[in-house]
Write a structure and sequence with these properties.
Blueprint: H1 7-18, E1 23-26, E2 46-49, H2 56-63, E3 68-71, H3 78-83, H4 85-106, E4 110-116, H5 139-157, E5 162-167, E6 170-171, H6 184-194, E7 198-201, E8 207-208, E9 211-212, H7 213-225, E10 232-235, E11 241-242, H8 243-249, E12 255-258, H9 273-278, H10 287-296, H11 309-315, H12 317-323
Parallel strand pairs: 1-2, 3-4, 4-5, 5-10, 6-9, 7-12
Antiparallel strand pairs: 8-11
Helix pairs in contact: 1-7, 2-4, 4-5
């Protein structure tokens, strides 16, 4: 597994270890953190390899005796991808190519790629199906889409038993706590802990298809056990929720509104009919339960950056500079 030290990856490690699987994690811990795997210290079924997925020799060695590959490693976030597209291309495109080649050489039985719903950009229809037009709005979305195209092309040309899952707004314990301004849950929970107002973008009526991490892991395991390949699938909750509703669930004592950002859709909503029909997967965790679990683990965000309107404006300056139509 690549990216096993990250948010989603570490939960997948938990699930695989609980099944009695032997897991090899490849992670350079640029995004992930060793503490996400500390619960498996001294467990002989887990091996952690500190390596870059864009390093062919390292990946060939890491994958050579592996049965299934889950490729989660990627650089995320919008603004850094605008500022440093080369790093994103190396990690998300070159890294995917190298991992595919190593998996092909090893003759793996299954290759599961984590793609992003950001590939749809601002779609024309909701819920958004897999055959909607692809409109990436920023380099992160583009590089994740290019990675997916590689995966699907390798399935077509080399008959690689590969499948791609387009994740929508995954949240849960261990979601990233440091680095650049990013996912709403990490921002809100750190603000709650610090007793600061929650910063809501726009008027808060925009809706997001928040999908709990255990459902995402279930989709990964379902995809890995299926015989279908060369297909992409949306992974979402079927129940988009407004940001205002999220603040209510978090029982926010105070809210401040900040400017709406360019390149962001007013709604993300996965059409999950394809995966329900073909693989039999559907989300199970309602937003109320998911938020309850997050609040129960809120101390994880104690050391996370506490954002305010001024620091957010500074951090997203390039967002407005490059993505605005004005």
């Amino acid at each position: 597994m690549t990216g096993g030290g990250g948010f989603i990856g570490s939960h997948l490690v938990d699930a695989l270890i609980s099944q009695g699987r032997k897991v090899r994690v490849v992670d350079n811990f640029t995004v992930g953190h060793p503490r996400n795997l500390k619960q498996h210290d001294r467990n002989p079924n887990l091996q952690v390899v500190a390596a870059d997925v864009a390093d062919p020799k390292a990946m060939e060695e890491a994958i050579k005796d592996v049965e299934r590959v889950f490729h989660l490693a990627a650089l995320a976030d919008i603004v850094p991808s605008i500022q440093n597209p080369e790093a994103y291309f190396r990690s998300n495109v070159d890294g995917t190519f190298v991992t595919l080649q190593a998996a092909r050489a090893a003759g793996v039985k299954r290759f599961v790629y984590v793609a992003s719903s950001s590939c749809y950009g601002i779609p024309d229809s909701y819920p958004t199906p897999e055959d909607a037009e692809i409109r990436p709005q920023y380099p992160y979305a583009l590089t994740k889409r290019l990675g997916e195209q590689l995966v699907l092309h390798w399935a077509q040309v080399y008959k690689m038993p590969a499948i791609s899952l387009r994740f929508f707004n995954i949240y849960g314990p261990r979601a990233r706590t440091s680095g650049t301004y990013g996912a709403v849950f990490g921002v809100f929970l750190a603000q709650l802990l610090a007793g600061k107002p929650l910063t809501v973008v726009g008027d808060g009526t925009q809706r997001r298809d928040f999908t709990y991490v255990s459902d995402a892991v279930g989709a990964l395991l379902t995809a890995a056990s299926s015989q279908i390949f060369g297909r992409c699938y949306n992974i979402g909750s079927d129940q988009p929720v407004s940001i205002n509703r999220l603040t209510e669930l978090l029982e926010a004592p105070e809210i401040v509104y900040i400017p709406k950002r360019p390149g962001e859709p007013d709604c993300t909503w996965a059409d999950t009919q394809r995966i329900k029909t073909e693989l039999g997967w559907s989300a199970k965790v309602p937003i109320e339960d998911g938020v309850h679990h997050m609040l129960g683990n809120i101390e994880y965000w104690r050391d996370a950056p506490v954002w305010n309107p001024d620091s957010i404006a500074e951090a997203t300056r390039d967002w407005f500079k490059y993505l605005s139509d004005e």
